Structure formats: C-alpha cells, structure tokens
Amino acid sequence: MTDEAVTGIENLSQETRTFSPPTEFVQDAVARPSLYEEAERDRLAFWRSRASLLSWETPFTETLDWSNPPFARWFADGTLNVAYNCVDRHVESGHGEQVALLAEYEDGSDATFTYADVKDEISRMANVLVDLGVRTGDRVAIYLPMIPEAVFAMLACARLGAPHSVVFGGFSADALRSRIEDAEARVVITADGQNRRGKQLPLKPAVDEALAGGADSVEKVLVVRRTGGDVEWTEGRDVWWHEARETASTEHAPVPVEAEHPLFILYTSGTTGKPKGIVHTTGGYLTQAAYTHRNVFDLKPRSDVYWCTADVGWITGHTYVVYGPMANRATQVIYEGTPDTPHQGRWWEIVEKHGVTLFYSSPTAIRTAMKWGEDIPAKHDLSSLRLLGSVGEAINPEAWMWYRRVIGGDRCPIVDTWWQTETGGIMISPLPGITATKPGSAQVPLPGIGADVVDESGTSVANGEGGYLVLDKPWPGMLRGIWGDPERFKETYWSRFEGLYFAGDGAKRDEDGDIWLLGRVDDVMNVSGHRLSTMEIESALVSHDWVAEAAVVGANDETTGQAPVAFVILRGGSEEEIATAGGEEKVPELLRAHVGKEIGPIAKPKRVLVVTELPKTRSGKIMRRLLRDVAENRQVGDTQTLADASVMDLIQQGMSGKS
Ligand code: WTA
User: Fold this and answer.
1) Separation of 33 CA from ligand 1 center, angstroms?
2) Which residue has its alpha carbon closest to ligand 1 atom 10?
3) Mean pLDDT lowest among 74-88, 219-233, 539-553
4) Where are the domains of the chain?
5) Overall average pLDDT of the 36-52 stretch
6) Residue 164 and residue 153 in contact, taking contact as beta carbons nearer than 8 Å
7) Given this model, what pLDDT does residue 14 score?
8) Do domains 23-507 and 528-657 have the same CATH topology?
9) What is the torsion angle, in degrees rounded to the nearest 10, for the CA atoms of residue 146, residue 425, residue 470 and residue 449?
10) What pTM, to 2 d.p., does this model score?
11) Rounded Cα–Cα distance for residues 637 and 619 (Å)
C-alpha cells in the first residue's frame, strides 16, 4: 500500500473523484429522491410513516415526546414485539419457506434456516428461557460465537421483552464479569467453545471464571454445544441447549412491549476506564434499523443475498445482521470464522457460493484484503455483487477505489456509512441510485436525520471548513441513556454544545457541503473498527503489580487504522520479580498478555515501551499528542507546555531500538 493510501484521510482536500449512480440502480432503486423532500417537509410525519412499516400490536398516537431533552420518547404509547416483526409476520404473510440464514461454518460445512425454522428455534429458546426463570424486563447476557444460535438467542430475548447484553466472544472473563454485574443479568447464554483459525477455543471456562469471581445475579447458564469435548459443569446452574431444546415447544406467543421498553444494552468504550452500557429501546430502534437497512442497502427481499461480516458482539451485528435485515425479511449469510481460514480467499469463496449481492464490511478488512493481493479475490466469481458497504472508520480513498474496482468490478455503488453504537442505526451515508459518491466521504445525513459540523462555539462551519460532528435533531434509534447512569449520559453527549449531541468525531464539510469524517477527537481509538479507550487500556496496565504509571496512544497503523501503543513506568521495587521473570526485555510481552487477560486480545498494545518519565503539562495532564509523535516515528511537536521539556529527550533516547 502506498503512503498516500495510509495518509489519505489527511489528504482529503486533494480528493476530487466522483461516481454517478449506475443507470440500473437509478431505475430500480428502493430509495427515492422524494424521501429527502418528504423528510424536509415534515420530519415527524416522515418518521411516523417509516414506523408504520412495522407491525404494531397497539398503534401509537404520539410520534415524539421531546419535552425532557435529552431523554427522547418515540412512538411511546404504541406496543409491539421485535421478534414478531423480525420473524413471525414473515411466516404469517406466506414467506415461511424463504431462507433467513445461510450459515457458513469455519470448517466449510453449512446449514440453512428458513424464516419458519427461525420461528421454531426462537420459540423453543424463549420457552427454555422462561423455564430458566427469565421474565419480561430481566437481563440476559449472551456470550457466543458467530453462529445462528447467537441470532436465535437475541431474538428469543426480544420475544420475551428481556433486554440482552451481548458480550463479544473475544472479551476476557474479567470484561464479561463487569458487564454481567453492571446489567445484573439473570441468565448467561454461551457455548462450550468456538472455532477460530482452525483451532477450537474454549468459551464456557471464561463464563465459569467470570461467575466464580462475582456476578451473583446469574442463576442459570444455557450452553450451546459447538466444539464438543469435555466441559466443566455446575449442576443446577448449567443447562445444555441441545437437551432443553428437545422437549421445548415451538409454540410461544411473543410478548408485546411498550415502544420505549429496553431491547438491549451494549457496552462500548468511552473516554473513561469503565465501559458504558448503551441502552436501546424497541419501537424507535427497530423503525430506524428497518428503514436504513432497506434504503441504504437497496434490499429486494425476493432476490437479494445480503452479507454483513460484523460479529453480533458489536452494534453493526445487532442492527445489520439481526434487527434490520430480519425486519426486512432479508436472506443473509452468517459466517462463523475468520477471513483467512482455511485460506485468504474464504470470504470471496462464500460470496461466489451463495451469490451474495449486497456486501457490508469494514475498511480494516478491505485494507487487509489489499495487503493479501488482488489475485486472491480474482480467483472467485464476484459478479453477483451489486452493492458494497463500509462501516467502522473512515475509509481511505485508495482503499475505497480498490474495493470498488477489485471487489465491485467497477459496477457496484459503495455506501460509506457513518454511525455509532449510540445512534443505533446509520446516520450519514450516500443513498444508492441517488447520491453521486466520493471516495472517502460518508457525505450526507439520511432523510430524517439532522447532522452538522460546528466550531468550538457550536456554530455551523462554512463549506470547506472543519470542526466537530454533531447531531442536531432527535432520531428514533438514538440511545435512551447509559444503563444506570442518566447523569453520565447527559455529561458525555450533551454537555459540550448546548442542545446538540456531540458524537466525539472530528469532521469537515467540503465545498459541496458533503461531510468527511476525520476520526475521534477524544481519547477513544479505533482499532480495526472497534472502539477502545486509552483510559481502559491504561487502567488494565496499571492494575499489573509492576506498573506505576501508563500512557496509551492510538498510533496510525496501515492495516488496523490505529493500534494501541503503551508507555509504562515500572514500579520501584519490582526489579527482583522482573529479573526472575526473565528481565526487562520480557516486560512488554508480559504486559501485553496482561491486557489481553484484563480486556481481551483486541486491546493488546502493539508495542509496550518502558520509560522512566512521561511528558506532562504543569497541571499534570499527560501530553498524549507528543507520545503519538514518538509512536508514529515523527518529529516531536511543540513541547512548550511541558513541565519538564527534557522528558521527551529521555523517552526518545530510552526507546530507540526498543519495543
Ligand atoms: C467511527 C460502529 C468514519 C467513528 C458503527 C464513530 C466511522 C465510531 C464510520 C463508532 C465511517 C464509524 N466513517 N468513521 N463510515 N463509521 N466510524 O460505536 O469514529 O463501534 O464515532 O459503531 O466509529 O464506533 P462504534
């Protein structure tokens, strides 16, 4: 990859290419230009008619209650059930035999589930959960690999109105425990293990460990058998899914809940050490999930085969694997494994095998595929594809061009979609068949969404200028708060600019008024499209006995976008222990492993540098900007505000050649 591709985001001003929508798309597109006019004319009426695409048990009369901002209530007096909307109604309307899930397993085996099958599975699981004591309103933690049972578990919870908290299968036992404790989950759904790069990795032991150290709210653990083999078993607590399933009825009446009933909690990193439990509710979230999925991906339920490569452990997996596609009756691929198992063409082999038409992935995956080389996708017939999507971070214009040419055969429109765990669904994106796309820009707010770029004082910037991305109107899929912490919700998102939601991203508006995202402006880093907070990794490092102080920065990385780099000061008195462990050279490796254990492998710093001082301002704030310069091998910037300017020399001398 060229340097230009890596620094493409900073070179946006040079990007002038545009691609008009292909004629085939314009004629037959789901999204119509009139959507913009309709939303402009009467925003609430617009959302009201989007909500009417769902099936309501009790129709709502009020669209939005914004009398107590920032706490929004959408469609509040209506009732509905999400699982009914995602599954049952399709069966009732005669589409029970349509394939819902095309499951691909890592070892090359596969399975197919129709909507009727899914209805049976989630009804069975809902009945089992009821037997295990789950009632409407109880929280259920889900810790599963990317297998159909993960989708079933989420929908079974939704069927009962029991908010789920999905914890990514790559998170550690400690991370799982703190999330279970925060949500006070009653039941955990997990698997014995998961297949990862040809190996079978245990999963249930992490649940056992999490529960042994606390998480007292958990009464039962439902275990899916995936890898087979021996597992530790706690009688009276642990229940095999395949055994409970055998006697469970496929009859289950979905429980209608109020539109504002919480559908799920999903933890995400913020600027502090403690992850935030983002709360999403039922009616507004599903409305936005369904509307955005249908229009942004141009979904034709009869003919399309859709594939979103995200794991259900992240928001993209919630909204664009489970809720959006299934509310729209999509047929979709769900893949258990990694893109390079058993070979680097695995994804493209799956596209060919199932005739995937709509493909949604991330810049980091695209950059990785670029690195592996275009001869790999070239071995597969990708001509079924008709639209490509990207999410997770800004896509470098060169990666965008490669995606378009190599994967999309120069024919597929690309939708670069900006959104967040907090927004619930896509907010800024081109609409296929309407928007002329620009490589690297998410471009325009969707119809019904209000977004702006403002300066320090909250004033809209002129075209051609940069600032902060804000959302200036409430939207149906917006987070309703942080679980158990309403003050933190206000403080985090609504305090920086009066009356505006501050997303934490820098952005620029070009001469045409299109929006370009410029990355986080807070202490959150984006590693392979996953959010990690510098504070969270610092806390994990400092929790190690040897570490006195730690500073973590996100350094640019060719493949993962950013990578954590840690600077640590060792505690006096730990010399002996360190010597026994193999000396100071061993410290980086051991601390990396420690972070892996505390948070999960994705949070492991790429490099750990042992230093004797950290650069600080006179008020004691760590100057991460300077450390980033070091981590990115740049000339160190302005050191004037440092309390002791010689620190940087020390760090640079000390680290030359070390990592
Ligand atoms: C970043 C993922 C630029 C952004 C859905 C945001 C993006 C954070 C894009 C949210 C994009 C996501 N262009 N940046 N198309 N999509 N981001 O909560 O910094 O995991 O604030 O949600 O990812 O990450 P999250």
Assistant:
1) 26
2) 420
3) 539-553
4) 23-507, 528-657
5) 98
6) yes
7) 58
8) no
9) 170
10) 0.90
11) 19
* Contact yes or no for 473/449 (Cβ under 8 A): yes
Domain formed by 528-657, architecture: 2-Layer Sandwich (3.30)
| Mutation probe of ligand 1 site: the residue of 296, 526, 536 with most atoms within 8 A of C-beta | 526
Is 196 flagged in the annotation as binding? yes
- Write out residues with Cβ below 6 Å of ligand 1: 268, 314-316, 391-394, 416-421, 442, 503-505, 517, 520, 526, 531
Ligand 1 atom closest to Cα of residue 422: 18
Query: Model confidence over 397-452: pLDDT tens digits?
Result: 989 999 999 999 999 999 999 999 999 999 999 999 999 999 999 999 999 999 99
What is the structure's pLDDT at 647?
82
Sheet strands (E) in 125-204: 140-143, 164-166, 187-191, 193-196, 199-202
- Note the pLDDT of residue 2: 28
Instruction: Kindly provide the ipTM of the predicted complex, given to two decimals.
Output: 0.99
Determine if residue 544 is labeled as part of a ligand binding site. Answer: yes
Cα–Cα dist 61/78, whole Å: 7
Q: Tens of pLDDT along 185-235?
A: 999 999 999 999 999 999 999 999 999 989 999 999 999 999 998 999 999
- Pocket probe for ligand 1: among 531, 532, 533, 562, the residue whose CB has the most ligand atoms within 8 Å is 531
Angle at 185 between CA 180 and CA 191, to 5 degrees: 75
Which residues lie across from 642 on neighbouring strands? Answer: 617
CATH 2.30.30.50 is right for the domain spanning 23-507: no
Distance 206 CA to ligand 1 centre (A): 29
Q: Kindly give the distance from the C-alpha atom of residue 208 to the centroid of ligand 1, in angstroms, as a whole number.
A: 33
- The response to whether 194 counts as a known ligand-binding position is no
Nearest to 539 by CA among 492, 610, 598, 624: 598
What is the rounded distance in angstroms from the CA atom of residue 503 to the CA atom of residue 74? 21
The alpha carbon of 256 and the centre of ligand 1 are apart by a number of angstroms equal to 32
Q: What is the tens place of the pLDDT at every residue in 85-138?
A: 999 999 999 999 999 999 999 999 999 999 999 999 999 999 999 999 999 999
Name the nearest CA neighbour of 129 among 154, 166, 146, 100.
154
User: Whose CA is closest to atom 3 on ligand 1?
Assistant: 394
Chain position carrying tokens 């042992």: 610
